[in-house]
Amino acid sequence: xxxxxxxxxxxxxxxxxxxxxxxxxxxxxxxxxxxxxxxxxxxxxxxxxxxxxxxxxxxxxxxxxxxxxxxxxxxxxxxxxxxxxxxxxxxxxxxxxxxxxxxxxxxxxxxxxxxxxxxxxxxxxxxxxxxxxxxxxxxxxxxxxxxxxxxxxxxxxxxxxxxxxxxxxxxxxxxxxxxxxxxxxxxxxxxxxxxxxxxxxxxxxxxxxxxxxxxxxxxxxxxxxxxxxxxxxxxxxxxxxxxxxxxxxxxxxxxxxxxxxxxxxxxxxxxxxxxxxxxxxxxxxxxxxxxxxxxxxxxxxxxxxxxxxxxxxxxxxxxxxxxxxxxxxxxxxxxxx
Length: 337
What we know:
mainly beta; globular; five-stranded mixed sheet
């Protein structure tokens, strides 16, 4: 885990903006080559309908597996062996990738349509999956490859999901409903909705469930919803598309990519303010994942068919990994002993 000071401890109080110009040699080496950094990265490629499995240390592609149409999001089991990909492109399937064998199987979700957001629940057997077309979250057993329950969200456009560390509560951003739904994932019950700024897409919840961070496509704001009180507080505005929410492992910072502005914002979670900004010209950053120690961020660059490796302490790109066309969701598995 990160130290108590966190990777941004040396930052100046004001917002720091770093701009990288796209081009040869402008933003770091062509492959990883980061001393001491190893493991496996799995990347979804939307246009071809594939997932790329990469060796982080060498930058080598280990395998490219076929998924369903338009794969967007990906979740990885705690043991790093199973990756679950949502086949969002008008489909009703999940693709389950066995990482060690680099093979894939399909789960048919039946009546659940357009799966998108996905998160593993404790135990590595169940995942919670939003189904945008059918206004529910499916609880799916990836071992038996079947849907165990459908939890209604009572709102349209339920796109992404955040789940508490204990797996008991889930929160969905409902883009057409302009709300966040709170769900009881243990008993399979809808609990309530909260009004939030228009078209909420990006969403995540702190492990203890006290804060739900939400990005509004309609207003360009990032807000914090506190389920205990129902209050909604604006943290930053001026974004175009706050695409995803990603907490650092120590809980100190929130990372928000904006593919329209080609930048990544770093927010202090407790102070609720922006502390740094990284601009990556022409890159369209989208999905992200962190190493367990919080030192490195892997960020898909949709317009460049690659993944940037960002050193969070230096706030700089230190390498790239090649992916397929229009990469989006990414998941990182540390090396096993």
